[in-house]
């Protein structure tokens, strides 16, 4: 047992693991903060649609030998704006718009992959984040932390406006808030977070970073600010526990983090249900 603990501690002292933890913590905070607004506005699955576009963008970036994060960022931000336009100014709305973007992105990535060679072995990493977080370079870390810091700062600076847009767009317009601007800001911040989180969670699991912490926080808090703070704390704690389990038991990081989030959500939901039954 002591040897097992010592080996785990040794792994976490390695440079690649330190970089992975730093990036993971920042991305987890970003996703958890944005997740509250996304869940309350019923935009929770927007992360899935954007991550599938990111999947296609990373495949294409690999084919043309271009910086994957930079290329994916541009493509996914553009997709976020497209999704907003589809949702507001088209007969294609809600889950239909997300499904259109999502399946289109996946199909494009698979087609490009089928027409080329040399990237097949990366497919599981891109989809599930198997080892991507453990291959983060020093430059990747600086870029990811810098962009994550920008997301957090913008969220804090425009907290009141995002709060207003989240709960009542009509009232926000009446008070002079530029609703379209702040909805676009929310979409851009989400797109940036999705791209940064794909390496850690993969295209198929990234939505869990925005979904689970927010839902778990809503089980224990009622006010928006307290839910946001609790969501950020839960996101960080679940990431930390998940990455420890991943290293200790040689499990995929993304799936381990989702598993911890799922367990916590189940516990909190069960506790809430029991409390309601007892007090009824």
Question: Can you put this structure into words, describing what you see?
Answer:
α2 packs antiparallel against α10. The radius of gyration is 19 Å and the shape is globular. The chain has 280 residues and is mainly α. The chain has helices spanning 2-12, 15-40, 46-64, 68-89, 94-115, 123-128, 138-157, 159-167, 169-174, 179-201, 207-220, 224-248, 253-279. Helices cover 82% and strands 0% of the residues.
Number of strands: 0
Q: Pairing-aware structural class of the strands and helices?
A: mainly alpha
Q: How much is the average pLDDT? A: 82
Taken as a percent bin, the fraction of beta residues is under 5%
What does the radius of gyration come to? 19 Å
Head-to-tail CA distance between termini: 46 Å
Q: Which term fits the overall shape?
A: globular
SS summary, helix count: 13
Biggest β-sheet, characterized?
A: none
Task: Point out poorly predicted stretches.
Answer: none
| Run of helices and strands | HHHHHHHHHHHHH
Helical amount among residues, as a percent range?
over 70%
Summarize the model shown:
82% of the residues lie in helices and 0% in strands. With 280 residues, it is mainly alpha-helical.
Which terms summarize this structure?
280 residues; mainly alpha; 82% helix
List the helices and strands and how they pair.
Layout: H1 2-12, H2 15-40, H3 46-64, H4 68-89, H5 94-115, H6 123-128, H7 138-157, H8 159-167, H9 169-174, H10 179-201, H11 207-220, H12 224-248, H13 253-279
